[in-house]
Structures
1.
Amino acid sequence: MRIVVIMRQLADLVEELEVNDEASDIDREFVKFVSNEWDEAALEEALCLKAVLGAEVVVCALDEPDVDQTLFTALAKGADRAVKLTGHDPEGWVRGRERARIFAAWSKDNPADLILTGVQAADDLDGQTAGLLAGMLGHPHAAVVVGVEVDGIGMRVHQELGGGIVGESFLGLPAVLGIQAARQAPRYASITRIRQAMQTQTIEEVALDPIVAQRVATVRRLYQPERQSGAQMLEGSASEVADQIVELIRAKGLVRG
Amino acid sequence: MGCAVLVVGEWVVGEIPDVTLELLGKGRRVAGELGGELGIVVQGSNIDLSSLGMADVVYHVAHASLEHYAASAWEEAVMGVVEFVDPKVVLVSTGTVGMDLAGSMAVRLDATLVSYVLAIETAGDSVVCTSQLYGGKLLAETETDQFPLVVTVIPGSFPAAEGRTGGSPRSEVVELDDRLTQVGARPIAVHEPEVAGVDITAAPLLVSVGRGIGSEANVELVQELADAFKAPLSASRPVIDQGWLPKPHQVGKSGKKVTPSVYLSFGISGAPEHLEGMRGAETIIACNTDPHAPIFEVAHYGTTIDLFDLVPEITERLGG
């Protein structure tokens, strides 16, 4: 069995994001790029399936800032191969439809039994990779997946349907799954192991012809939302703010003693 | 034949979900502006026609593969209706059903897809959508005049009440047995949530922790505060996905909806999915170092003081 995990880099949401002068994209110059956290869950699920089934796990990502770090980390965690696709502008916003087209082009020459990727990414304006890619490859698919078991010639998947309800269904292979959470928290790779992977393993680079995605809505303006009047900010030192918070909660009768 | 807007109904279990009513209400307006009818596609046998009065036509597809939920079967059912109706705009939520169906359908229909939409307006021959990106930190205004257009809408963006009224729609059964029998996916079951030891929905005070806590070891700091308040500790999704707290502690779309008297949050930026689960709290007090964090829009009181400085101070005042 061959499992492909599609990963990507994304602006770190912990940091403040600025918009470029044209208001067409984020200002990418000073942004820290990190691995999309849901892709890390997809990788974890793939590695768990590998442990059960003896599958080959191939991670595949577009060339994007600091993607080598993500790919070597995946190798250190136990992925068998890492592939980096080039041919697009690695410094720009690769729109979702284009991203999916690139992976579809690569997948046609590199078929997998199962393709896993993160359920979503924070800039998925054109839809999520799993559904788009499944449509392009003609594969069955499922999103918001929180459980995967192999069942004969197919898989049983568990999907969150909101409010804690989980839908269980069967689908045939090959399939594409958008992973919300793996069966366990993503494993940790030590710096030593990542360095070891860098010294002993390589990232395979594959150059593809540039793809111009059709059917993409034009971004007229990207902007920060107006702050709603919203919260009254508590002023002062940590000690003074702590006093105010305790008083607010005491006023509700919720501080005992 | 010939609806301008088609809404994808999203019943899986229970009542008609609010998001379907929200889409019907908004769909009514968009259909009017585009000069056509409003249709809704409903799957399975769990249908209450009387609640769909806002639509002009209800397209009903029934098949064994549509009971419960299997993504590819639902997709085939909606595709069958879309091909029959040929709408200009298809509306579905940015929930599981929308994430399942929208991408694949848009590719198969050669349609434009716009996701995470909060607002839709028509402008002449174009549709202008406003989408929420980067966890609510940025908005993107897009324009397209290419139809068909598939739009996935964030639940809660439009009032459900506007989809609740209306007349009595025509009902059409769309026969798709041959297509649905060939789908290689089938539903197995729907599992209701586990009854857990901790019930965060019942507590008058919740102390809640998010990504900003940084590591599992740090969770103890906020747990001590929760213990000092004798309140349960809840969390946003990143903390649960990391395995730092068990699933029954999760607040948000894929966790629990909570309405405590006071919701005291630390290191939660307020992704839309989280806000959906806690904005009904009577008083929200939020601590986050990013002054632009979306949580401050729904919070009543806020502070940007580092939680690692603030939490021990509060715990100390409670004698913890």
2.
Amino acid sequence: LRLESKKAMSAILVVDDDPISARLLELTLTPGGHQVEVARDVSSGQRALLAGHHDLLILDIFLPDGSGLEILRFLREDLKQAIPVIVLSGHRQEDFADRATKLGATQYVTKPFSLRDLLAEVDRLTG
Amino acid sequence: MWRRFADIPYTLLVFGIFMLELVGLGTLIWTFALRTGQLVPDVFVEQTLIAATAITALGLLLLTAYILAYHVLSVPRERRRQQRLETWTDRWFGVLFSTEPTPTGRLGADATAAAFEIRERLKGSEGKEFSRLLEELRLGEPLLDRLRSFRLTTRLSALDGLAKARLPGSIGPLMRAMLDPNPVARFMAGRAVARTMSEMPPDARRDEVALTFARALELAALPPGASGEILLLLEDAAPVVLAALFLDGRLPAPLVRAALDVVGRHRLREFTDEAVSRITYRDREVRAAALRALARLGIAPPQASDPIVIALNDDTEFVRVQAARAAAYLPPEVAVPVLQGSMGDSSWWVRRASAESLLKLGPKGIGTLWAAANKHPDVFAGDMAAQVLLDAGIKAPQFGSGLSETA
């Protein structure tokens, strides 16, 4: 298998408390030229958003100190940022996807997912 | 749970302290008994009391020291384990995407754990390729051996690993594990089969496995919630298993209920007729599940009209609630009059569900709610209509003067 990226060079914030998932995302996105920052919970995710500019946010819903959707709300309503957001969740149920979309998620991806498909999506959204 | 390692030393320590306390308290009781009979002097009782207290203090001290030492030692140990897992994650990722050679020789526990964790997170061709690699390296074999262990915890941890690994070759042993005497092991085995099946290609082999799995689920006799979770995990393979389950005319009611719940949750419209045919089922939980499935699907085909109307008068409250919710998808000319009637139901929940369904039915339903809010013969029905309209932010000037935010 091969990972191919368009070398888009974007700053991506990944908020995921699962160390293996976060590491896989990092390993997938970094060789593609993206700069990846990882936060493990809602508060560190919000701090990272306040601290620097990001071109894309990849967000897990279930985090140790709350819901990833709180970060999405913070991004859209408090920071008024329109950057693309990919929401990751283990739930296929449509109500989760609906909630994320209403709050301004660009994409809703259910876990497990294909790393190559995710990389293609990231390239598309940041290209 | 604060411990992840060293179960045996902790068990021995607690057992030792317990024995010390037992001896101390036993001696104390014996000494007091002797004193009551004036057989020993006061000073002897005092000495025994001090010794027993000292034993308790020593026990507490030992336990506290152990817990503190455990944390001091286990935190760096866990950190080192995470680092090893991360190293193996990087390595397996390289192997998957052909930037590193496949490891050879005997692989340790960290390599296996990292491999299964990665497999759990991969989908599609990457997942299948990684499963092929795991089977080639025979990483699943120790887990399959552990399925035969007499220790439940060993079997459960093997089932957990196999659920993550999703190895097609493990389906047979996992199906057999669904007949385990322990219900938790049967549930874990069912989950592992479902997760493995969810990645099988839609071919004749999957259809064959689905038939066996449907039978195994029936024999596993799990509670509906557990069966439902297993069926949900099937994802794209759920329809083929559900079809096999619904084919069985003697399927136990808890499994029918679980299957109907999955029809609704996965929005599997191809099973609408299966749901409709079970609105009049003998088991009330199944009747409710069938109606709930229709409401989740957002469908009430013509043949569902009469059963839904009948279910609105069911003896069981929660069946009437689900019927009121499903009625929202009937044609307005059928739904509005029956929901108007069920607004006067004795149950608050049925009145609420009926009013909410009327709201979903558009202008006709909203008009009925307005009318009910003003002059329904049943005051509770009127109040509910008003409340639902207020909650939805619909204001009508023709509301009665008594209607307020507190209605």
3.
Amino acid sequence: MTPVVDPALSLTDHFGKAVRFADFRGQYLLVFFGFTHCKVVCPRTLGKLSEALDRLGPQSAALQPLYVSVDPERDTPEVMRAFLEARYPRFLGLTGSAEQIAHAKAAFRVFAERKVNPDDPGDYDMPHTALVYLLDREGNYLLHLAPHLDVDAVVTRLGKTIQTQTDSE
Amino acid sequence: MGVEAATIGNFARSREELLAQVPELDRFQTGHLRHIENIARQLPNDWANMGTQLSWQENFEAFRYQLAYMAYAVALTHFHRLPAAPGYFRQTFDDLIQKMLLPDVWYFWRETSRGGGEVNKDAPISPGQVNPIDRDNIMYSAYLQSMSALYNVLFDDDKYTKPGALTMKFNPFLFRTDQCEDFAYDQNSINEHLYWRMVESGYLGIACEPFCTFQICQQPAILGFRLNDVLNGTDRATEVTEGFAAAWKEFGQFDEQGHYTTFVKTSTGEVQPNQSGAWSDGWLGTLLNMWSPDLVKGHYPEGIRKWVKDLPDGTSFVPPYVPEGAEGADVSAGSSVDFGWCCTWASEVGDQELLSRFLGYADKYLSPKWKDGGYYYPRNDKFVDEDGNAITVSPQAGNALLPYARLNVPDGLNKLYNAPWGPAHFAEPLITEISDTVDVTRARWLPEPRSLVFSLARREGREGEVALVIANVFTQDGGSWHLNAGEAEIASGTAAVVTAVSSGIRIERVGHDLHVAMPIAGKSDFILQWQS
């Protein structure tokens, strides 16, 4: 079944502050899981989402983009802050203990698995789910965006969904 | 025809021309359909002709596979060969779905879910579970998912989307009655469940038995995703197939011998090459052609030749895999579905020459049988006959795979996957109901000239007239229509008037549909044509 996110689910933001999903109530959440060492999927997706948010214009003010690490061992709050502020400043990074991240992955039904980097045995990759989730102002799942959608499709789907939601509020 | 001819039809194109545009099923194809229908009509828990060589519903001849691939064969026949006759197939397809819900089909999961299989003895053991959908077991759940989606797409009927419409009941009558439980799902909830399981797996796929993720067993689920996408306006099949291709690239879709890799042991990350025969190549080649035809067709010519033996009599076969220790008299420990899957593989890629040689072998050496109008290859556990010819037949091959191969068309599953019917098809004149006194051997709507062309053949031993309902007759644009049987007009009408021209026919308008009842003897060709 679709993801169900416990409002009490807690993580640490990239300022080092403990946060719960309940703390974001009142905002739409755009949630993407990844890791800062990711070479392909994360840069592509974060870039696409950043452009989509730019193009959404005023609607994006209602959205809080979140980037949740699947690699808490390397992605400390400091690392995530430096990574996001330099390249994807719209996003708030979230990390936590291995147990917290496991809970977050399970809630969003996210796959991520540590694999040795074949080009550098001392390094590792974290192949992971590339879905982007949209939650409503109460933290309920609304939809997810597949990785093959281009930026036009992302803008259209986010814009329409937020408009529909806003109209019914 | 048993009706009295009154007038000669008046067609814009000759009757022969129209009939030539609509190929007719041959008697073997009709016989296969009848055999599948006979099995589908058996009372619940009557598994006559389906008994398996192995107990425990363990192997590739298990009831779930027989039911699913009989259903797929019906789907392909309806979609490609008799698109205007949903009434000929609908009950059969529905009966096959209902049989999938019986405990005899799915209760094996209580044991299998514990793990500890022959192929991954090192994997953890669990207490197991009865619910056959919840975890792993894509080898059952994907068939229920895809069959219910096919039913919806082919018959424009969403009854399986209703909550609880696909409920598996654990309801023993005498024992463990305090543990009875219903596992209530529907077309959408199973689809959702499998989709998210697929996401969680990183698109490698959902396991069959614990910790064994097979390439082939994801394909029925992908068919289900695609059909549900069409129904729901989603696009999950694209996401899943792209993810699947990327995930399997890591392990390799082919082994060192050039065969499709079979499965990944997710407890160890090991990939299993094909070590047990042609079934793995044939099965995956058949279904993967849905969404990866270039890969399948690039591999096929060399891939299938590794398995095929040609005989001087113009036939060809695939020797069955013989498990270690089972050489000699029988293959009761083996699956013996290698030949059947190579037949479906050849049919899907459109290798008509080899398919013809395969079916020639089957008809010559596999002791085909006619029973109650049905044509099939009875189970045979013997390995070879006295002349050394391979004669083993599993019920999966005899009931489902060989009929599937004979009824399929080139790229049959690919076309069904990529261009399933939409609303325009269901607005055409269609035979939505028909009595079981006849077989339908031809049924197609020709938009130009606007004609429904169909042929009916009386079933031997079935008494009574034939009654049929042709839907959407009175939603067509104006003009008069004429219904001919053979060269004789038997009825005519307009949007307002219906007239039986022959004395033996009863015909009436009911809503937008035309109801027809008439005697029939032998076979007759019908043309319902509009004159604008």
4.
Amino acid sequence: MNRPMPDDIHALAAAYALNAVDDVERADFEAHLQRCEACRTDVAEFRSVALGLAEDSAQSPPASLRAAVLSKVATTAQDHVAGPVVVARRHRWSTAVLGVAAATLVAVLGVRLADVTNDRDHAQAVSALLAAPDATTVTLAGANLPPDERGRVVFSAARAEIAVILDGMPAMPDGQVIQLWYMVDHQPVPGPTFTPSGGRAMAMDDGVPAAAHAVALTMEPTGGSVAPTTPIMMSSDLEPSGR
Amino acid sequence: MLSRFRRRCSTETNPVRRRLRRTIVGHHLRAVAATEPVSEEALLRRVATGDEQAFAALYDLLAPLVYGVCRRVVRHSAVAEEVAQEALIDVWRGAARFDDQRGSVRAWAVTIAHRRAVDRVRAEASRVDREDRVWRADPGRRTTTDDVADDVVGAEIERLTRIRTRRAVEQLTDLQRQAIEQAFFAGRTHTEIAGTLNVPLGTVKTRIRDGLIKLGDLLGEQR
């Protein structure tokens, strides 16, 4: 569960509040935020300080901006904080119990981890996760996905830890991120958000709800949602081995 | 240090202090809607129900802040206008997601605008890397201030806000100030900042954090 972080992740709250993090760090920290009340408080307060800096830069926009924004608003649908969704199709995937070294990551995941993240600590974290006795890998499936678009999940129920690795992803529209959902009793529970870079994306979370029986991915506005607002892109059952 | 920060901030969740704080930071509000003070929070609640009129009123309160952040980060005025537009549309779209337990509407709007601006700067930087071209910021067209020319009170409060913030920033150590400026205004990651300032990675994280705590204390004391 609480795998020791390479650094004290709490220390990232200020940098996160100022957007001074890269996509991998953001995904990591947002996963952490889901379960750290102290960091949520810190981020809110650091953002109120950032507001002070921003007020210092306030200046009147060109008059054209108002007309452009108001006319766009008239034709832009608002996001609704949606109710629960269910996974449309449930897939059964064969379980592979793995205890592998980092060298076999390519074979297992079909992607070179170095391509996904150049952060050695993340590569090591995935390797460590794969080495967990109950680690399983599952493939994410979704409707109408391009053939080279892949999603793999490494999951350890004992550690309540998951890694999601996506490959061949198209660029996300501005302001959109991918969000991971845990299906608990067929209700979505929000997981971390992440953004593909160069077609690849990765998220890790060590707070998988114990009762999660499936995972799903949706596209959500930056910052993530409390419930899915768009159709599921990919999903998979989790295979809790040893249960 | 941080616990002191938390304690101080937690007292500001006190409704009276919060209202006071809102009155101070929400000076545009008083200037624009002098007759009937409507808080940004109240307007946003109406926006969340699809009320376009409320959004127009909220636009007037937030646009200088949102545009100012975008302008400061992306520098190029035409690009800033584009990015500010995206951010303000995000405010419209995401109104239902605003959580008033997590800070003010203004702080939320800044978060959205800053993230948009930083994403644009980074996308531009990687494009420039690829194409090996130099991105030239325009020399800085000053926008006309016709909209606020009559708003003498608002302008005065704005001026005082700037002086107050600058005084606070001047009290930071050089490293704190540089780290925060590079993060907030140049859109750099803490890793990049460690490179430009030639200091260890952990140091930048800590300086950003300490600097923000100190700024928060200084700005809080002056209120």
